[in-house]
């Protein structure tokens, strides 16, 4: 059901008719008490639309409150003159869309997109332990094996560590899901620094357990970060990293998949043996690009390499990081170089390096930040449905070596 909050009766009637024609079951409220009563009667409300007669401050306050209490409820604000200040406030509060009430199509599209997100958030069967039955942190095993999500890019500095850490926080959802973040940049791993963790044990300690690693052994190597999120950190000394081979990484990740709902893997900026071993067991590939021609060219090479290795295209989430940076490339330019349109965009923000320096990912410090929201959107839109079947031709590393050599 859709709740419309609009104090002016004529406007309320007009908007209710528009939404009704588009298939919304609309109930209207003219004051805060009416809105509260409607919500109390149906706490699962997926969409609340604030009409142009409502004070934007009320919408902002309402959204900020709902964001944590009922994250599946979408808030859409209809405002003809939303300036940059209001848009920023709206985003921070978690208002999903702001649309011009004079443009019926924009209104319906905004409501449709919000409902799509709510549906994603309300699909308990699609994400193990995600939105439905919530096993307590450290509780029983998930009902089905978790998913391995690997973040990769073939050029350094694209934002792999930024995206992997924030995505892991978003997927863990404050402890609703069990997530393991694995730093496979075994020589120059940055996850410990990005999360301000002290690596007392980590991946290097798995070397002596190779071929006989079990759940207890793996747990002993983890560094907890926050409820629902554990990390497996890279060695402190780059030389220790040299001893971590592909077979060990495969063993670790296959075991981790049985213990966690999601295993998020951060990788080095090249196809190292550990990274290739991770790709072999990966369910979702988050392939990063950035809006400059050199990086885009490298991303295309990464996509071609995934083709060569037989990893299916429908498991890839091509993600343009620092999207919207004023660097003179149009979306068409990006698509022309990549040969595919990006599936996801993460905006550029000075808050990202600030958050890295503070050691607290934006997704943890400010979930309503546009960068946090973009990354949470990847989780909801692209990581909730199970991946398609794996390609029958996976693991053609010989071809890759020939192509490289
Ligand atoms: N969306 C963004 N907006 C602004 N700065 C960003 C964004 N994403 C990443 N950065 C910055 O880019 C730099 C590189 O990011 P990060 O360390 O995550 O990249 P990486 O791909 O892991 O690098 P490496 O290849 O060295 O491991 C960092 O300073 C980070 O703050
Ligand atoms: Mg990194």
From TrEMBL:
Annotated TM spans: none
Bias (Basic residues) ranges: 394-405
Gene Ontology molecular function terms on file: ATP binding; ATP hydrolysis activity
InterPro entries: CheY-like_superfamily, CobQ/CobB/MinD/ParA_Nub-bd_dom, P-loop_NTPase, ParA/MinD_ATPase
Residue intervals of the CobQ/CobB/MinD/ParA nucleotide binding domain: 149-361
Gene Ontology BP terms: negative regulation of cell division
PANTHER family: SEPTUM SITE-DETERMINING PROTEIN MIND HOMOLOG, CHLOROPLASTIC-RELATED, SLR0110 PROTEIN
Protein name in the entry: CobQ/CobB/MinD/ParA nucleotide binding domain-containing protein
Organism from which the protein derives: Planobispora takensis
């Amino acid at each position: 059901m859709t709740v419309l909050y609009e104090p002016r009766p004529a406007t309320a009637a007009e908007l209710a008719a528009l939404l009704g024609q588009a298939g919304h079951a609309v109930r209207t409220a003219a004051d805060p008490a009416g809105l509260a009563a409607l919500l109390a009667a149906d706490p699962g409300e997926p969409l609340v639309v604030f009409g142009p007669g409502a004070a934007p401050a009320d919408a902002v306050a309402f959204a900020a409150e709902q964001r944590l209490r009922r994250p599946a409820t979408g808030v859409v604000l209809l405002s003809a003159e939303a300036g940059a200040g209001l848009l920023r406030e709206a985003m921070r509060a978690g208002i999903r869309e702001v649309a011009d009430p004079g443009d019926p199509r924009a209104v319906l599209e905004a409501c449709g997109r919000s409902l799509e997100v709510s549906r994603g958030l309300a699909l308990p069967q699609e994400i193990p332990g995600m939105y439905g039955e919530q096993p307590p942190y450290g509780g029983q095993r998930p009902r089905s094996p978790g998913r391995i999500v690997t973040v990769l890019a073939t050029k350094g500095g694209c934002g792999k560590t930024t995206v992997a850490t924030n995505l892991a926080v978003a997927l863990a959802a404050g402890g609703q899901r069990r997530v393991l973040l694995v730093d496979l940049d075994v020589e120059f791993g940055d996850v410990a620094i990005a999360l301000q963790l002290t690596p007392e044990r980590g991946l290097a300690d798995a070397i002596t357990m190779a071929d006989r690693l079990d759940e207890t052994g793996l747990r002993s190597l983890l560094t907890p970060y926050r409820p629902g999120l554990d990390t497996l950190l890279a060695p402190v000394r780059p030389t220790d990293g040299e001893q971590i081979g592909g077979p060990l990484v495969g063993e670790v990740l296959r075991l981790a998949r049985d213990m966690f709902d999601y295993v998020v893997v951060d990788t080095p900026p090249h196809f190292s043996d550990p990274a290739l071993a991770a790709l072999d067991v990966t369910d979702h590939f988050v392939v990063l690009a950035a809006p400059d021609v050199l990086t885009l060219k490298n991303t295309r090479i990464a996509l071609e390499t995934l083709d060569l290795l037989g990893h299916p295209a429908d498991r890839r989430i091509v993600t343009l990081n620092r999207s919207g940076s004023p660097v003179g490339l149009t979306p068409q330019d990006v698509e022309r170089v990549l040969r595919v349109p990006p599936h996801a965009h993460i905006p550029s923000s000075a808050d990202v390096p600030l958050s890295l320096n503070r050691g607290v990912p934006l997704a943890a410090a400010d979930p309503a930040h546009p960068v946090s929201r973009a990354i949470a959107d990847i989780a909801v839109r692209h990581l909730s449905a199970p991946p398609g079947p794996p390609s029958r031709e996976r693991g053609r590393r010989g071809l890759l070596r020939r192509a490289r050599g």
